[in-house]
Amino acid sequence: MKRSIPTKRTTIYDLAELAGTSASAVSAVLNGNWKKRRISSQLAEKITRLAEEQGYALNMQASVLRRERSKIIGMIVPKYDNRYFGSIVEQFEAMARERGLFPIITCTRRDPALEIEAARAMLSYQVDCLIATGATDPDRIADICSAAGVRAVNLDLPGSRVPSVISDNFGGALELTRRVLANCEREFGEKAPLLFVGGRGTDHNTAERVRGFRAAHAEAGVAVDETLVLTCGYAPEKAENAMKAMAEKVDALPRGMFVNSTISLEGVMRWIRRSGHYADRMPHLGCFDWDPFVAMLGDHIEMVRQDVPKMLDAVFEIIDSGASDLKVIQIPPIVEQTG
């Protein structure tokens, strides 16, 4: 009878040999102390990459015994110049301090390389937990945190390695689309499809909002042509250019629109003002985002306000309870008329 031999577990000594350095240097990198040891960022990057490739998982219990809690909590965010993310940052800081934690926050501009760089910098300061908000690759960040023995939670965009807290994007988009369709039918006397503008079709939130957008149309018995879904990105310039390009191909644009964020709404409104396309009557708009100043645009717009307090309550409940199951918690957003 052949005896099965268990696969040898990778140790810090194996990683040290692969990296061409000492075990203590490997330990410092994985524990987030490499800057204090004056280890180069190139070596830290190499060790972290090797740890990921070798499937190395830091012994959490031993890690806790070796170091005291720093009581530092980190967060990365994709934008500051947006009321939604600004609100997340402000309330996160307050809630962290209420718990005796010191918050560190940095903006990564939706740049995957900056996200990884920021996560590793946070670990070098020995954060006890890292909140990845709107990260383009949350699983990569979760893996880096796991290798260093640090907890991570995803916020806004979900991942598959750690718990996630997000808005109910499908439900919010479904209700918002219903309202804009009803507003258009009431004013213009006909059922007609809306235009979807903004966001990236590859990210979870936009995909779910498009799904809710389509479901509301199907519910109303209105067909949606693929050309009416302009997932052109979030930048105002991209939304403006997408509107311009579409207007050059058709005689008239739809009388109603679903705009994926206030960032995209800026580009949409800029194009409307400059083009004069809706000079006779403003279209009905729905925006999956919220800003009180949008009320100045008139009463032809409804907005979705993501419930930031409840989202952050859920994040800190995960942190406080030590929960580690890979669930995605969806918080219903609030749909409200601005006018």
TrEMBL record:
Domain of life from the UniProt record: Bacteria
Xref: Pfam families: LacI (PF00356), Peripla_BP_4 (PF13407)
PROSITE patterns: HTH_LACI_2 (PS50932)
Record Gene3D superfamilies: 3.40.50.2300, lambda repressor-like DNA-binding domains
Protein name per its UniProtKB record: LacI family DNA-binding transcriptional regulator
Molecular-function annotations in GO: DNA-binding transcription factor activity; transcription cis-regulatory region binding
UniProt entry keywords in alphabetical sequence: DNA-binding, Transcription, Transcription regulation
InterPro entries assigned: HTH_LacI, Lambda_DNA-bd_dom_sf, Peripla_BP_I, SBP_2_dom
Signal peptide: none
